[in-house]
Amino acid sequence: MKILDEGSAASAAEPSGAQRGPATADAAEGARAEGPAAVGLRERKKRARREALIDATHRLVARDGLDAVTVDAICEEAGVSTRTFFNYFDSKDDAVLGHAPWPLTDEAAETFATGGPTGDLLADLRVLVTHVLETPPTGHDRMRRGFELAAHEPRLLAKHIAWMERSKGELTALLTRRLGDDPSHPLDVVTTLVLFVTHTAVMRWDANGGEGDAADQVDAVIADIRALVAP
Amino acid sequence: MKILDEGSAASAAEPSGAQRGPATADAAEGARAEGPAAVGLRERKKRARREALIDATHRLVARDGLDAVTVDAICEEAGVSTRTFFNYFDSKDDAVLGHAPWPLTDEAAETFATGGPTGDLLADLRVLVTHVLETPPTGHDRMRRGFELAAHEPRLLAKHIAWMERSKGELTALLTRRLGDDPSHPLDVVTTLVLFVTHTAVMRWDANGGEGDAADQVDAVIADIRALVAP
DNA sequence: GCCCGAATTGCAGTCGGTGCAAGTTTGCAC
DNA sequence: GTGCAAACTTGCACCGACTGCAATTCGGGC
């Protein structure tokens, strides 16, 4: 986590100088400080490239708008071949959002599945969502800039929701382990509600200027739902 | 509404015989019965083509899967030019889902905006959602087949959610008129929750084999949310 | 230094989607 | 029914996203 935060602080703060030409040098430098002692050069370069691509995409999209930016342009900006771009992301949109498999395979997940930490379903879901929101795969600020841009591009919002939808399977598995076949909380409602709470929390966090943590909004959102739906 | 139901019953039940060649004749016939006495030929043809395209898409996608079906194939099946396809739909995906602007500009919307019918927010939302679910723009069965296919194609589900997201603006406008700036029910939560309830209700309805009306599920979903989120 | 596997790259090709400039068809008035 | 304007359809040329393949380069362990 710290790795990403540092990395992003270094290379993402502002477009630096490199407006033109290959930014390979910058990117490589951006990844100089790695966390877990011995991370191979290979791995560092990979991360650096990935972040360079995301940053390049953000820069161009912020300036020209999503549809006006071609993948070729992004690649030129980042100094890689078009083909390589698609080795990193499945689509142009994914690059804006920095989409990557979210690491839910934590002890947090395990704890939740086995009935912890409190034993109360809602409270534990809250913990789970909070935990997920606090450990993004790409670093807070890059994530935030992705959302910033997504807020103005409906298609991106859709992609993001679709991406969340995909993790529904994972969540369902977790819930099944925990709930067994307890019919009092149908899976479809629980999973979908979790997703929507998460989504709304992130959106509010972004709307508030990204201050603090997205997780801070979770409680407020739940409270609002409760108020609306109360008998 | 009855128009569409009749039309779909006639031409959509099964692929009939026309597996090959222009289905223009079939399509034209499918639209023979128009509701509001005098609907111009132009309008009838338009609807017929639209439905023919949706049906052709459904047929091919059901057989070969979304990605294996090209727009050209759909057009050949339906007997129109490729260019025409895109006069009717913005994308291949939209054709599967039969997406069209949803007519929310009813008295129902007006009633809701002005505080009716009951005066209780939740109850009135329920009425609104129910009303919307009972008057689909393309006919129940076509809608159902769209969902059927969407359930197996993640991308389609995403598109559908995105499409709902788009109507959020409309809903927000409605809510603003009704609520003014009542801070006790933040707009983002209300709109998102409405979408969520609608979506889940439709999914359940589909999972139950499409018996009855999607609206029937709305109450159950709300009850489940309440149970989950209760203090 | 040397070799293996991983990552990058160029290329050729498919498909989705759009703008434009003809045709055709429909609605309408006379 | 004739004629005209508006609405639709269609073919065509074109762009850009994305993929599979085969050649090449590059990092890491020996």
Separate helix tally of chain A: 13
Which quaternary structure do these chains form? homodimer
Helix share of residues of chain A? 55-70%
Cα Rg of chain A: 19 Å
Shape, principal axes of CA atoms of chain A: globular
DNA-binding region (chains A, B): 70-89
Organism (chains A, B): Cellulomonas alba
Keywords (chains A, B): DNA-binding, Transcription, Transcription regulation
Region (Disordered) (chains A, B): 1-44
Q: Could you please describe the fold and organization of this structure?
A:
Chains A, B: Residues 1-44 are annotated as: Disordered. The structure is a homodimer of 231-residue chains. Chain A folds into 2 domains: 2-88, Arc Repressor Mutant, subunit A, CATH 1.10.10.60; 107-229, Orthogonal Bundle (Tetracycline Repressor, domain 2). Helix content of chain A is 66%, strand content 0%. Chain A has helices at residues 2-12, 24-30, 41-64, 71-78, 82-88, 92-97, 107-113, 121-134, 140-150, 154-166, 168-179, 187-207, 218-229. Chain A contains 13 helices and no strands. In chain A, helix 1 (2-12) packs across helix 3 (41-64), helix 3 packs across helix 4 (71-78) and helix 12 (187-207) crosses helix 13 (218-229). Chain A is an all-alpha fold and 231 residues long. The interface between A and B is medium-sized, with 34 and 34 residues. The structure holds a DNA duplex (30 and 30 nucleotides).
